[in-house]
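Appendix B, Record 12. Input sequence as logged:
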Amino acid sequence: MSRSKTFVGIVVLLAFFAIGLSAQTKKNHPKGKYDAKLAEKLGADQYGMKSYVMIVLKTGPNDSKITDKAQRGDLFKGHFANMTRLAKEGKLVFAGPFIDGRPKRGLWILAVETVAEAEKLIKTDPTVSAGVFVYEMTKLYGSAALMQVGEIHERIQKTSVN
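Logged structural output:
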């Protein structure tokens, strides 16, 4: 076989490989919008997902016992400061109160791998330490896009809670 036929054969083989690869990429990403850099930045796996720990804050045994307004104000000021710190560290990716308020009071989603890591972080909250809240934790597998909630929230928040 001549060199030119070998070269043409290799080019044809590479073209078939490229067509097959392109078809596979379209199959995996039908909209063609996959952003590998963003996926890596957010810690996404091949499905665009990642592990979190979800925490449900519930009314604690000392909630009704701590009635002094100044003390409660200080505890909740610390609660919001703690959440702000965790969000800036990239650990707290979502938080919010439940509308009905009792016994479940709020939800946190932490970008950590283990329940043990989450427990260390939740125990830094003054309202938890004071027994205003107790918590339940569970592993969560969800979209890595949650990692951008804080960034987006800063752009749409007109008034800060702290």
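The CA atoms of residues 83 and 89 lie 10 Å apart.
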